Amino acid sequence: MKQFQEGRYIFISNANSMKTELGRVTILVKDCDEAFEFYEKNLGCKKFFDLVMENGKRYLHLGFEPDLSAGIWLSEAEDDDELSRVGNQTGKKPVLVVYTDSIAEFYDRLVANGTTITREPKSADEQQSVHFTDLYGNKLVAVESNK
Fold first, then answer.
1. pTM of the predicted model, to two decimals?
2. Whole-Å CA distances, 19 to 1, 23, 65, 67
């Protein structure tokens, strides 16, 4: 196992390990179509996979072009317990952090769409970020790195 330091972060690498990559982050929603509209308009997501099973269960996976391999699985809440978690899956922490090459354009898009901004764009440690919420109240962050 190798350790190396870049800036203030320490990365640990095991050169002999198998390849592992992120597939999907699951976000509970009340309605897949209204959630998709939000994520498409504000984050630029595209539908990667959309299937409705015979039992009515829907699998809607969103991705970011050009690489659709990692993304978001919108999952409709199925019972009272899941409904109570819509918009608050992670407590006070962000459910998702996305990276952009222009925080100014990203912010302008959020404002134009009437998205709730919870922390205006801020610069720190060679990066800029903006905090906002989705249509259900989930906390999201967009980050632009200046490195």
1. 0.84
2. 15, 12, 22, 17
